[in-house]
Amino acid sequence: MNTMAIKSKFMDTIKKIWFERNRIYMETKAGETYSRPLEAFPILKEATDKQRKDYKLGKDKTDIRWMELDEDIHINSFFNATEPEPANAVAQTLKQFPQINISALANQIGINKSLLAKYIYGIKKPSATRKKEIESALHALGEKLLAVEL
Hints:
Strand order of the largest sheet: 1-2-3
CATH class of the largest domain: Alpha Beta
CATH topology of the largest domain: NE0471 N-terminal domain-like
CATH superfamily of the largest domain: Uncharacterised protein PF10387, DUF2442
Helix content: 40-55%
Radius of gyration: 19 Å
Oligomer: single chain
Distance between the termini: 65 Å
Number of helices: 7
Number of strands: 6
Number of domains: 2
Strand content: 15-25%
Structural class: alpha+beta
CATH architecture of the largest domain: 2-Layer Sandwich
């Protein structure tokens, strides 16, 4: 892509947003269409259709705001082509324990629920240190469960 094409891509504005087949789509004023998997935006993935449709474009039409969900997405987020990797180690481990509360686990690790969800969906890859933190939190939960006496 030449410098002029890159410059115009990043100067474009949002014309239209819609949701389809577990993805969010954006059409730009220049007529280009981009999409991202909802896994890239866990808050939107968990939202209802009604909540997803309740958005406002920013004043300069380069961002989208969902007030009820407290979620913002900038136009540049659509230019990232990363697709989910659902077979990652974090997802495979947590899939075995659907009763684990992801919000509580994220809280215990000291990270945002959205970030942990992105690790689970395979949109982001945790560092070796972060994987150890997740593993330690799961082990701590296991130790607490082993200590239960009824």
